[in-house]
Amino acid sequence: MNHLKRILTHPSLVKTVSIHVMLMTVFVWLLDLNSGVLGSLGVVMSIAFATLTVWYRATRRIMNELDSLNVQLTQRDVERAAGLPAKKLYTQMPFEFGTFLSNANIEVRQLDSSLRNVRAEHHQLDVILSSLMDGVIAMDRHQKVLHINGAAKRLLQVDGDLLGVELWKNVRHPQINKIVDDVYAHRIMQRAEFSLAHSAGEIAAELLASSIVDERSTFLGVVLVIQDVSTQKQFERMRRDFVGNASHDLKTPIAAISAMAETMLDDEAMPNDVRNRFIEKIKRQTSRLSVLVQQLMTLSQVETVDPSQRLTMHTFDVCLLSEQLVTDLSPLLDKKKVSLHFDKPSHPIMLHADRDAIEQVLQNLLDNAIKYTEEGSVRLTLLPSDSEVVMSVSDTGDGISEQDQLRVFERFYRADKSRTREGVAPSGNGLGLSIVKHIVERHAGSIELQSALAKGSTFSVTLPLKQI
User: How big is the chain by its Cα radius of gyration, in Å?
Assistant: First the structure.
């Protein structure tokens, strides 16, 4: 109706109607002028009929064209709402309507161009926000959601269409809602850390809430940025544990060496046999320090992503390497009631890897299995397939609890602190499995642990094979 009203009030149409009204006036005047002259009645009727015919045809044509224009304009609104380009308006009406439609088409083209630019910018912004790992939520001044990206929905575990709805109706988290209320009330930035419950467990999150204002400092709403900081918190905890454990492991042998050295210096009359026992203990503690420093250096190297610290890759028979390790570790079994078994295929298993690094992986796993099995058996199994080899080390020892299994590959983490006492495991500093894990991952492999308390453990390393 708005389109039709605009067209009906156009000057061209008004002019056309005015001409028709003028013709009707002339007709009435002629009728009055000749009312007394019967002889002129035919002329008057002819003029009247001709005038009415012209007026009817012109009016009918105008109304048909107006109906056509109204249909075109309605269809254009539908197409614009659907994001389609608007079609050009057309008409067969004379007079100034050509100029009117030409100007209208120019304005429509400009409007379509502006709408396309707005849609493109909106789509680009939506793509950018959707690709962010952090959650982003924008709200208007009434706390209704204007935009929410996929990361925010995943972190807050909400789905569906939240646009135009108050955030608190879908996010029932007291701390988040309180921060949002504070920003709306005081218009100042707020930051907080909190936990979010997920199916895989709790995650640590950080929320930054800030007000949105325009160039005239008019308050428009609030934007929220939610970041998953679980990995960062885990690294901070691991760093604290690393510093504390490293300090303890370094301090203990240094303190023992210092105490025994001072005792020997203070007691000049110390019997030779006692002095020799002290020297032997100093030597063991020095070896313990040496092993710790060497493992720290090894761990630093395997964690380095510097291209200059690349692995030295060779193709070798992992069966032959394993046989040599089993032979070298046999003396450790003499003092324990432990048997060592080795299962392998009858053919060689050619592996393309850093031989020294793989040897360290197998030696660490076998050392731990023998060390923590007082009585029972240890088994090394090599199981090849077309594309990979699985190297498993299993034992019937103490086993590892489910809680400790989650952290057993962390640096300096020890499942059983009592195992580090002197005489049981002097080199058990919690670095071995961390080194193993990093070496395996640098070879594009994986390591898995299956264990149960008092039943033993199985460490399985899977590495890709080199196709020969």
Answer: 44
Nearest to 375 by CA among 336, 340, 341: 336
Q: What is the DSSP string of 172-221?
A: --HHHHHHHHHHHHH---EEEEEEEEETTEEEEEEEEEEEEE-TT--EEE
Contacts of 273 (CB under 8 A, 6+ apart): none
Residue 220: burial class (beta carbons within 10 Å; 0-12, 13-18, 19+): middle
The pTM assigned to this predicted structure is 0.50
Strand order across the beta sheet in which 190-198 lies: 145-148, 135-140, 219-228, 201-213, 190-198
Q: Are 344 and 306 in contact (CB under 8 A)?
A: no
CA of 286: how far to CAs of 125, 368, 414, in Å? 62, 21, 21
Would you state the pLDDT for residue 258?
Answer: 85
Q: Which helix (H) or strand (E) holds 368?
A: helix 355-371
Q: Strands 337-343, 375-384: parallel, antiparallel or unpaired by DSSP?
A: parallel
146 pLDDT tier (thresholds 50, 70, 90):
confident
Q: Phi/psi of residue 26, each to 5°? A: -60, -40
- Look at residues 211, 203, 189 and name the one whose alpha carbon lies nearest to residue 156: 203
Q: Is 388 helix (H, G, I), strand (E, B) or coil?
A: strand
Q: What backbone torsions phi and psi does residue 251 show, to the nearest 5 degrees? A: -70, -40
